[in-house]
Write a structure and sequence with these properties.
Length: 230
């Protein structure tokens, strides 16, 4: 249950994992990039190393970020995944270009109808830990391109930094409690937003829900956002 749904003026959505997902999968794309550059790894190895790398090479400890730092972070992630390769620059370049293309992503079936419905009554925005490539990706779908876009590398802070959420509230000229954030990441989206004073919903999509997220804050599909608000 939302604290004060009648006070909400803006609904923000996380992007990757909430509105869109990579298709083919990240592991499949990484494997193909490795093969093309002489480093053929089992897909299970790629999945495991990628998960490790996301933890090892998260954003800086103070959660500051920018375009240069994001590119460097992904360089480290790729180097970790392809540890056997003598040189990973060509692999990074291939992956960077691939994930910059809208054709490399698919949109969840419930995403566009939800954004379209909400845009009649609320400001709608996208709040993502990403870089400038997201603008071209979001521009591929009308409802996403019409939404305000808050990209961490442009804001200068990454979720769950309170500076990230505070910057958005300042741009919107709203109080934090007037903003609802919907996302699939417990730390970056749900807890980060709540700590900043936002209202928040955790999108589970049938995944396990952490014990520290109240059941009434959990939704299984984006369509439930509409039923909570309208």
């Amino acid at each position: 249950m939302l604290r004060s749904p009648n006070l909400i003026r803006c609904v923000l959505f996380d992007v990757v994992g909430t509105l869109i997902y990579p298709q083919p999968s990240v592991a499949a794309v990484y494997q193909a990039a490795g093969v093309a550059n002489g480093c053929d790894l089992p897909i299970e190895t790629i999945r495991a190393r990628f998960r490790e790398a996301l933890i090892l090479y998260s954003v800086s400890p103070d959660l500051r970020t920018d375009e240069t730092l994001e590119r460097e972070r992904w360089r480290q992630i790729v180097a970790h995944v392809f540890a056997e390769a003598n040189e990973t620059k060509a692999i990074l370049d291939r992956l960077w270009k691939h994930f910059a293309q809208a054709s490399s992503w698919s949109v969840y079936q419930d995403a566009l109808p939800t954004l379209e419905k909400l845009s009649d009554r609320y400001q709608v925005g996208l709040a993502s830990n990403f870089d400038g490539r997201l603008r071209a990706i979001a521009g591929h779908w009308p409802c996403l391109s019409d939404a305000m876009l808050f990209v961490s590398a442009e804001v200068g802070w990454a979720k769950p930094s309170p500076h990230y959420f505070g910057s958005i509230a300042n741009v919107l000229q709203l109080q934090p409690h007037q903003i609802l954030l919907v996302g699939d990441d417990p730390r970056n989206d749900y807890h980060g937003a709540v700590a900043a004073g936002y209202q928040a919903l955790f999108l589970a999509r049938e995944k396990d829900v952490p014990a520290d997220i109240a059941p009434e804050a959990v939704i299984q599909s984006l369509g439930e956002v509409i039923t909570r608000l309208l």
